[in-house]
Specification:
186 residues, 4 helices, eight-stranded mixed β-sheet, single chain
């Protein structure tokens, strides 16, 4: 089986522009939404990022994230039950990996991600492309495009990833596909 990062097909919505988060990565403040145990922050640390704030709905996950020593602040919050418990327009980068899917996080949360990002900052989101998530993914993409039409952000890149993660149901053997979205707040 192939790893989730293999066989990536990238579709840039702004031809000729490379997806890049410019500036001082070490100084950038990253909001890790649905941070879980801190796996995303650990990877971002390897890529030069150094300041993390995490949000998760599970106190048990937050305890494990706290033990990682990567986060300057951690907050418990159930996504979709109100605004994110962070200052608006503060974050250079906002990420949500593995939580935007049916039965987990409402599509409308992406507006909160955008509100938390400073102008010129980036929002990186992922979702599954498996058959049980098709309707959610379509609704998510409609919301992302609507927000772009409203002038809230611009799409930098959308990448479809063939072998994204292990299947989440008995019918899905091996890996399922997914998508990564990168937006820049205006």
């Amino acid at each position: 089986m192939k790893a989730p990062h293999q066989e990536k097909r990238s579709t840039s919505t702004t031809p000729g522009q490379r997806p890049m988060i410019s500036g001082d990565r070490e100084a950038a403040v990253v909001l890790d939404v649905a941070c879980g145990t801190g796996l995303v922050a650990k990877q971002l640390k390897r890529h030069g990022f150094g300041h993390f704030v995490g949000i998760d709905g599970s106190e048990a996950m937050l305890m494990l994230a706290r033990e990682s020593g990567l986060y300057q602040d951690l907050k418990q919050s159930m996504l979709g039950e109100g605004p994110l418990p962070v200052q608006k327009g503060l974050f250079d980068v906002v990420v949500i990996v593995g939580a935007l899917s049916v039965g987990q996080v409402p599509v409308g949360v992406v507006r909160e991600l955008c509100k938390s990002t400073k102008p010129g900052g980036h929002v990186c989101m992922t979702t599954r492309s498996n058959h049980t998530n098709v309707e959610y993914k379509a609704a998510l993409e409609r919301e992302l495009k609507q927000m772009e039409a409203e002038g809230l952000w611009t799409c930098v890149e959308v990448s479809e990833v063939e072998d994204w993660e292990r299947g989440v149901s008995e019918e899905e053997v091996g890996y399922i596909s997914g998508a990564v979205y990168l937006y820049k707040k205006l």
